[in-house]
Write a structure and sequence with these properties.
The chain is 33% helix and 23% strand. It is an alpha/beta fold. The chain has two domains: 3-176, Thiolase/Chalcone synthase (Peroxisomal Thiolase, Chain A, domain 1); 180-334, 3-Layer(aba) Sandwich (Peroxisomal Thiolase, Chain A, domain 1). The protein has a five-stranded mixed β-sheet with strand order 1-7-6-4-5, with helices on both faces. The protein binds coenzyme A. It comes from Pricia antarctica.
Length: 335
């Protein structure tokens, strides 16, 4: 059996920086509230026409492919995680295959929101471990900004989310002690609506209902989040799934060199850091600059950590995420 290893990483964020003060000009909020509750100072918003979820993913992917030292034609499969696809269908995986101009490899779309990158990584890892594929392109990308309620009504959600993309190349690794040691995935659909975007969908709010109602005040177009409930579940599930991953590899928290948590909220990361008694240099956070970029947050953070020399050969790197679904997961990696 083979292992899979991350051989290339890349990220892309749009140039347009939106600070907390910028948001305070269009809704009733302020820098102090946002920083105190979330740690976020600024985020990026796509300017319409400049980028899409797919185009950002492609830009990140090109960097990852180059750093992996492979040709784009060496990619055997694409896995794309997002909650903000360019189209209702088809998903962005095939658009990446088209826009990269590569042969007719398979392309799979993952719909697991903030845990999307861990789920996508896990899927790619299984294909490589089974021997089916040698190089898999994994992308997490989100264009949130134009789907948010930017009025005061939506402020508890819209100040948190930002746009961006991250990508990784997973390649076959012969040494089983290296690479992705294991991934751990969970869901609890009982809480599906606690962090959700209901409309349009073929469940509660059909496109035909929306057209018939023609109600400009309809909130179901926008993401809904029960913030405190999400927060309480997140800290528990993050901890559980990190422990599960460590235990399954006979490892302990003290073995962690770098934890790269999904950038949901700086307070959640700090809670986890304290619980596992990790130093400031053992937990990577960049939510201050980018906000919560959902499926893109882990690959953006992991790329920045790698670029700044915080990930070294032989390090134990732990990825963990929690989000809408609820879904959560972890990946235990020997770099
Ligand atoms: C969203 C979150 C920051 C809100 O913080 P909170 O302490 O729970 O705040 P509340 O929702 O209770 O709101 C407190 C007050 O601030 C107000 N408020 C909400 N958003 C605001 C904003 N952007 N600016 C200013 N005030 C705001 C509320 O209206 C409320 O006012 P009230 O007391 O007069 O009713 C927090 O719940 C959170 O981070 N949850 C987890 C989110 C998360 O991780 N999501 C991603 C998961 S992947």
């Amino acid at each position: 059996m083979y292992n899979s290893k991350i051989t290339g990483l890349g990220y892309y964020v749009p140039e347009n920086v939106v600070t907390n003060d910028d948001l305070a000009k269009i809704m009733d909020t302020n820098d102090a509230w946002i920083q105190e509750r979330t740690g976020i100072k600024e985020r990026r918003h796509v300017i319409k026409g400049d980028d899409t979820t797919t185009s950002m993913g492609v830009k990140a992917a090109k960097i990852a492919i180059e750093r992996a030292g492979i040709d784009k034609e060496d990619i055997d499969f694409i896995v794309f995680a997002t909650l903000s696809p360019d189209y209702y269908f088809p998903g962005p995986g095939v658009l990446v295959q088209r826009d990269l101009g590569i042969k007719t490899v398979g392309a799979l779309d993952v719909r697991n929101q903030c845990s999307g990158f861990i789920y996508a990584l896990s899927v790619a890892d299984q294909y490589i471990k089974s021997g089916m594929y040698k190089n898999v392109l994994v992308i997490g990308s989100e264009l949130h900004s134009h789907g948010l309620d930017m009025s005061t009504r939506g402020r508890s959600v819209s100040v948190i989310f930002g746009d961006g993309a991250g990508a990784a190349i997973l390649s076959r690794e012969e040494d089983n002690a290296k690479g992705i040691l294991s991934t751990h995935l969970h869901s609890e659909g009982q809480h599906a609506e606690e962090l959700s975007l209901i409309a349009p969908g073929m469940g509660k709010r059909w496109v035909t209902d929306i057209i018939a109602d023609n109600d400009a005040d309809d909130e179901s177009y926008y993401p809904y989040m029960n913030g405190q409930f999400v927060f309480k579940n997140a800290v528990v599930r993050f901890s559980e799934v990190i422990i599960e991953g460590l235990k399954s590899n006979d490892l302990q928290a003290s073995d962690i060199d770098l934890l790269v948590p999904h950038q949901a909220n700086l307070r959640i990361s700090q809670f986890i850091q304290k619980k596992f008694k990790l130093g400031d240099d053992q937990v990577f956070n960049n939510i201050m600059k980018y906000g919560n970029t959902t499926a893109a947050s882990i690959p953006i953070a992991l790329t920045e950590a790698w670029e700044t020399g915080k990930v070294k050969d032989g390090d134990l790197v732990v990825l963990a995420a929690f989000g809408s679904g609820f879904t959560w997961g972890s990946a235990i990696i020997r770099w």
